[in-house]
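Title: Prediction job returns without error message
Component: structure pipeline
Severity: low
Priority: P3
Assignee: unassigned

Description:
Job completed but the reporter wants confirmation the result is attached to the right record. Sequence as submitted:
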Amino acid sequence: MPSYRPPCHFPPDGTPGLPCASRRRLLHMGAASGLGLVLPGAFAAGPQPAGGWPVRRADIQVNGQSFHVLEQGEGPAVMFCHGFPDTADTWRSQMAAVAQAGYRAIALDMRGYGNSYAPEDPALYSAPHTAGDLVGILDARSIKQAVLVGHDWGADHAQRAALLRPDRFRALVSISIPYAPRGERNTWDDLRAKGLADRYYAFDMMQPDAEQRIAPPATTIPGVLYWASASAPAAARWDPLDPKRSLLRPAPGPESGQLIGWADPAYVRHTVAAFERSGFRGGLNYYRSLPLTFDLMPAFKDMPLRQPSLYVWGAADGLCQFLHPGGPKLADMRKTQPGLVDAIRFDNVGHWVQHEAAARLNTELVRFLRALPMA
């Protein structure tokens, strides 16, 4: 396989991204930083024939609890972490792409979701707990290291896992949620101090009756997919600071002509059925457990993420517009992620990047993987 030459990207503010030669130097610096990375990625994996890798499903015992896991392909491991409200099946397109490129894709129903362990106590959803789940799955499969890919809450927990166990997680791709190190106070207290307790959507998700107030999954899932995506009109799209533009509105019906063309009907049906079985409590517990993660990680205050990393976001995502108005600045992001290769903006894409722009994300993901030094 010829050596891979990454393209250059430019953030939306017009500031040049990392030059191509500098990007390669940054990736090779990871090896010199004790990350366990040795050889150029061109030797890490080879392309595989299309359709040659069936999806394997299994329930794996991790620390005495069962986790539902999907696997596809063979080669260096790439582990996928989903967010709310979702399951491992959200990654089927990305899993097929990395399997065909010569990697071993692993996706799990995160704790609290689908067919995985789902304790009721929010205290059991901290980042150290989920990091233990991810490490336990690697151990069960005798895998020494993996690249982490996370979306939404899955990105946040993948980031904490990479911080806690750099020996097991050699690189990171964050989608829709940028890395923010632990600061002086937790995110919810910071938002309260800014006067946003009555506006920011997450506070409603943490109310004791939130699960009961969320509509049935057959209404909730299509609504969350639609309103958080670029398919919704910009003036009505999800705004995390405006309760009138909530995630939890019903999606327009077929008679409106506003169907979600990018959402695979089989995926929507699977997700609805999963939440009809499990309910939403497990997913909501991620919101409730954030202060506990903060309290458990004082030793990691202001800690940078040093592994090679990539950030991908949709320009029409209301959450990203809140988190980094006008778009993230690479120079600022590299203060806390010195191994950040790029921050890639997808125009006309909302929160559900892995569905709304599956092919584009797959291209960037495989490009990032092939540029990494070998495990």
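Comment from assignee: result matches the submitted record. Confidence is low (pLDDT under 50) at residues 1-47.
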